[in-house]
Every structure is written in structure tokens, then in C-alpha cells.
């Protein structure tokens, strides 16, 4: 018999959401709640804020959901800075672009560096919820170096 009160350790890992649009952050938070995803969400409005957090936190994030186009440090530069930082690189935090925009040029640029996916937010709240559920479920099940700690 499985103890339903047992806490999944992956539920404790924060989801990092980097997005300069506060309304989008609100919708993502609501979609995660509706999908019964219990992970805390750490919201950052730009890549520089997120990088500082990642370099200083003791938390181990489940996944980084990053918009592509943002003022200041965009998603591409953030991805490159994380990959160039030996400590952050070894943390093996999945980096997933999560954007409203997707065209051939953006996707090709995204895959010029280390990235674990490029997802669109969708056209409806149901699409958003479905996409977030897919991403989170995948990274909770996927083995990576942190799986063995």
C-alpha cells in the first residue's frame, strides 16, 4: 500500500520562470495550480535577476522556463551564461524556452547552445496548462545527474 501523504521530493524543487510580462507570470502560476503542480515558482523579470539567483541559491530548481525575448539579458544570453559558469553547468538544471513566439529563426538560434526544449505557451489557458503539465511531468521523471544525490 502506498502512503498518499508521502511527499515527492521533486515537488519541493522550484520552477524558475523568467518572463518580463507580469500578466504571463500570473497566468502560468494559475495554470500550474490548476494542473495540481505543487512546485514553488520563482519569478524573475529578466535574465540578470535569474542568473544572480541561480549563482547564489542553495535551492535546486526542477526546471528553468525562460522567455526568449526580454529587455536586458534575453533568454539566449542567459542560457549562454549558465552554460559558461562551471558551477551552474554542473547543477544540470534543465533549460527550456517557454515563449509566445516561435519561428524558424528563433528556434534555430535557441538550439545553437545547450537547451532542453522550446515550447510555445499556446493560444488558450487549457493549452498553457497542458504544455506546463507535459514539461513538469517530463522533468520529474527524467534521469539527470541530480537524480542520484
TrEMBL record:
SMART domains per the UniProt record, alphabetical: REC
InterPro entries per record: CheY-like_superfamily, Sig_transdc_resp-reg_receiver, TCS_response_regulator
Protein name listed in UniProt: Response regulator
PANTHER family: RESPONSE REGULATOR RCP1, RESPONSE REGULATOR RCP1-RELATED
Positions of modified residues (4-aspartylphosphate): 67
Residues in Response regulatory domain copies: 14-136
Domain of life of the source: Bacteria
One Pfam family matching this protein: Response_reg
Species in which this protein is naturally found: Spirosoma liriopis
Keyword line: Phosphoprotein
Amino acid at each position: 500500500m502506498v502512503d498518499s501523504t508521502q511527499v515527492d521530493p521533486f515537488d519541493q524543487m522550484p520552477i524558475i520562470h523568467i518572463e518580463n510580462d507580469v500578466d504571463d507570470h500570473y497566468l502560468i502560476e494559475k495554470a500550474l495550480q490548476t494542473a495540481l503542480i505543487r512546485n514553488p515558482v520563482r519569478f524573475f523579470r529578466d535574465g540578470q535577476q535569474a542568473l544572480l539567483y541561480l549563482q547564489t541559491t542553495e535551492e535546486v530548481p526542477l526546471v528553468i522556463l525562460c522567455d526568449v525575448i526580454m529587455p536586458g539579458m534575453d533568454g539566449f544570453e542567459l542560457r549562454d551564461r549558465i552554460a559558461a559558469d562551471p558551477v551552474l553547468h554542473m547543477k544540470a538544471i534543465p533549460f527550456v524556452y517557454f515563449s509566445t513566439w516561435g519561428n524558424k529563426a528563433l528556434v534555430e538560434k535557441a538550439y545553437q547552445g545547450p537547451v532542453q526544449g522550446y515550447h510555445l505557451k499556446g493560444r488558450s489557458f487549457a493549452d498553457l496548462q497542458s504544455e506546463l503539465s507535459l514539461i513538469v511531468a517530463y522533468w520529474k521523471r527524467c534521469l539527470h545527474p541530480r537524480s542520484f544525490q
